[in-house]
Every structure is written in structure tokens, then in C-alpha cells.
Specification:
The protein is an all-alpha fold. It contains 19 helices and no strands.
């Protein structure tokens, strides 16, 4: 049976969404698939009705307004080239709310698209582990740690992808809508992702993983009264931690550095290199820049320039030489766009959070919570790995059509 024109475009739209979700852990070809999705959306036509759908969708307008305020920030930025680059990086925050609010998927397709992220994560994790094992046995090179291990993405971003994948798998298992045989395979995937997250040695990633397991464990024991499964989850997680921390001391050292950074009260700005201590100094510098530019910020392209000036005043030599950003998405937006931009970012997270709670959409809820937690320690919206992931899945999960 031949497809009509509308069905043909719907199929292309769906397959491109699958490819985008799958390719995100590799950071390859995703922009190409996004361009093809835009082209398909435009060529399909019916643009008048599509824009009417967008205009009548308050959440779509909220998401789009966050991009528009960055455009407005170009009007008073000094570093226009940097501002234009930032606008390009954040295009996904405009594209996906426009496309998915006017052309949403149903619930079953949305879940399959989410599954493609998990499959992409499995393949990426397998490739990284295989590569490190090969290098260890071929020439004795140990690449089982942090950036030497994460060959596709920065460890913090890949850890976030895998943590969200784990949360979705745990939610699916807890809802008892999968065969028991399939649950066993999914538990193996959770074990794989947990080991990879610990090897990636992202502090926020490891803390997110720990919190995810503790919340799920509490749910199993206190709510479901499933003590057997709770014991299995607890033993499995403790076993993973013991194995990795015993055989991979680099990860253990990074966690130790985190606690030492909070305990160390005598930090000398020009000597700090350790990431947590550096973040604490960066956030103090960010507070100063915000205080002097509270209302409108410094402009879309000037945030890093103003931070560098503040680093130099404070003799933060490593931060200057490394050209570091605010390492916090909320600080970064506040510096660039002032209190309006900061509040708009908060609303972009808070309103979907409340909506997902009201609708008991636990997949979207876990996505927002984990993303927000990672925003606290990384400027996740300053590179495409963050904006593509946030723009794509935030709009996908927000605008999908649930089963009646």
C-alpha cells in the first residue's frame, strides 16, 4: 500500500528523530539529521496551521522565548562574533520546540525514540570499553579514566546521557510493563552504564548515579514493599562501587578531592587547579560580575570576556589560561542576560517539572531533575552536546500525545 504525501513526511520525521536520539552519545552526524528534519518540516508545508499550533501552545512559547532573549542580548553585546556563535550553538533550543509542538509524536513512538538513546549509549559504551581493553593488552596503556576513556563526548555530558537512560530503564521496570526476560537484559544495561559512568569519573555524574539508585531503592522498599528486588539493587550497586573504586583509584581520588575542596578554607586563587575548588572560586567571581550587571547582564557574547577580566583581578591564573566559563548554567545565563534571562531559564525548568508531576510523567520528571542537577556544576548550554540534547528531549517529552 503506497503512502500519501503526509504519511511519507511523517515517516521521515519519525526516522530522523530515531537517528538524532541514537547519534547523540557519539556527537557525530546529529547536526546533519537536525538539518534534514528542518527541511522535511518545511517541505511538508501546511506552515500556517503549524505556526497556529505553536502560537496556541504556552509551553512552546516559553521555550522559544528563552532563545529569543539571547537574540535580544545581541543588541548590547560588545563581542558580536562570540554572540553570533552562541546563537548558532543554541539553535536547537528554537528548532525543536517549533517542530515538536507543531508535529508531536504519540506515546509509543516517543518511548521508542527514548530507547534509541539507550541503544546509542550501549554501543558507545561498548566501543569505549573495547578500545581501552585493547590498548591495555596491546601496549600497556591505561585509558580507563575520564577524558582518556571518553572518546566521543566530554565525560560530564556522556554521564548525564547515561544517567537519564538508567532512570528511564528503572522507571520502565518499576511500572511492570515489560516481560521478566527483558528486565534481565535491562538490568545488565544498567550495570554497564553504571560502570561506564564511574570510569568517566565525572563527579556530578557519580553523584547523580548514586541519588538515582537511592531514590529507586527507597521506592522499591518503602512504596512497593519489594524487599527482594531492593536487596538485589543495593548489593549490585555496592558491588559496582567496590569493584571500580578498588581497581580504578583515579575515580576514587576525584571523589576525595571533592570532599577536600569543601573542607579547605584557605584557598589561594593562583594555585588552584583541582576542578571543584576552581568552581568555587569561579562562582565567587561570577557573583561579582552579576552584581555589576544585574538587570540586563553583559550581553549574549560578553560573558566569558567579563569573567576573564574578573579572574585577572582575583589572580586566578589557571582560570585565565584555560579560558573557563562559569561552570554553572544558571550563573552563565545570569551573567549574559541578567535577572530576566535567569528567571526565564528557571521557568523553562520549573513549569515542565510541575507539569510532569501533575501528569505523573515520570520519564519527563527524571529528565528535568537530572538535567537541573547537572546545570549546577556545568554550563551545559554553552556547547552543542548540551543544547541539542536539552532541546531535543525537552520538547519531545513535553509535547508528545499521551494515550487516552
Amino acid at each position: 500500500m503506497s503512502l500519501n504525501r503526509s504519511e511519507y513526511h511523517n515517516q521521515i520525521h519519525y526516522y530522523l528523530a530515531l537517528l538524532i536520539a541514537f547519534s547523540l552519545p557519539f556527537a557525530k552526524l546529529t547536526p546533519v539529521f537536525i538539518i534534514l528534519m528542518i527541511a522535511n518540516w518545511v517541505i511538508e508545508g501546511d506552515l500556517k496551521n503549524k505556526f497556529l499550533h505553536i502560537l496556541h501552545n504556552k509551553l512552546a512559547l516559553l521555550f522559544i522565548s528563552f532563545y529569543i532573549i539571547h537574540l535580544l542580548g545581541l543588541l548590547y553585546t560588545q563581542n558580536l562574533n562570540s554572540g553570533l556563535f552562541d546563537i548558532q550553538v543554541k539553535l536547537s533550543l528554537l528548532i525543536f520546540p517549533v517542530i515538536f509542538s507543531s508535529k508531536p509524536f504519540d506515546e509509543s513512538k516517543t518511548r521508542i525514540i527514548g530507547m534509541m538513546l539507550i541503544i546509542g549509549g550501549i554501543i558507545a559504551s561498548t566501543i569505549m570499553l573495547s578500545r581501552s581493553i585493547y590498548l591495555l593488552y596491546s601496549n600497556g596503556e591505561n585509558t580507563f579514566f575520564y577524558q582518556t576513556f571518553s572518546i566521543f563526548l566530554h565525560p560530564s555530558y556522556l554521564s548525564m546521557y547515561l544517567n537519564i537512560s538508567i532512570s528511564w530503564i528503572l522507571i520502565s521496570i518499576s511500572q511492570n510493563n515489560l516481560p521478566k526476560k527483558q528486565n534481565r537484559y535491562l538490568i545488565l544495561v544498567i550495570l554497564l552504564f553504571s560502570v561506564v559512568i564511574i570510569l568517566l569519573a565525572s563527579k556530578s555524574g557519580i553523584f547523580t548515579l548514586t541519588l538515582t539508585f537511592l531514590l529507586f531503592l527507597s521506592y522499591l522498599i518503602l512504596y512497593k514493599k519489594n524487599y527482594k528486588m531492593g536487596a538485589i539493587v543495593l548489593i549490585g550497586f555496592v558491588g559496582i562501587l567496590f569493584f571500580v573504586f578498588h581497581y580504578f583509584p583515579f575515580t576514587s581520588k576525584r571523589i576525595t578531592q571533592l570532599t577536600e575542596a569543601f573542607e579547605n578554607k584557605d584557598i589561594k586563587n593562583n594555585e588552584v587547579v583541582e576542578s571543584t575548588s576552581m568552581r568555587m572560586l569561579i562562582w565567587k567571581a561570577s557573583n561579582s560580575v552579576i552584581k555589576n550587571n544585574f538587570a540586563l547582564g553583559v550581553g549574549t557574547g560578553d560573558s566569558k570576556d567579563e569573567l576573564i577580566k574578573e579572574y585577572k583581578k582575583r589572580d586566578m591564573t589557571y582560570a585565565v589560561s584555560s579560558n573557563l566559563n562559569a561552570h554553572n548554567a544558571f550563573y552563565q545565563v545570569f551573567i549574559s542576560l541578567g535577572v530576566g534571562g535567569f528567571l526565564l531559564l528557571c521557568l523553562n525548568l520549573l513549569i515542565p517539572l510541575l507539569s510532569s508531576l501533575k501528569n505523573k510523567n515520570f520519564f519527563y520528571l527524571s529528565f528535568i531533575l537530572i538535567l537541573t542537577f547537572n546545570f549546577l556544576s556545568e554550563s551545559m548550554l554553552e556547547c552543542q552536546a548540551g543544547t541539542m540534547f536539552f532541546g531535543f528531549f525537552n520538547s519531545l517529552l513535553c509535547f508528545y500525545k499521551p494515550k487516552q
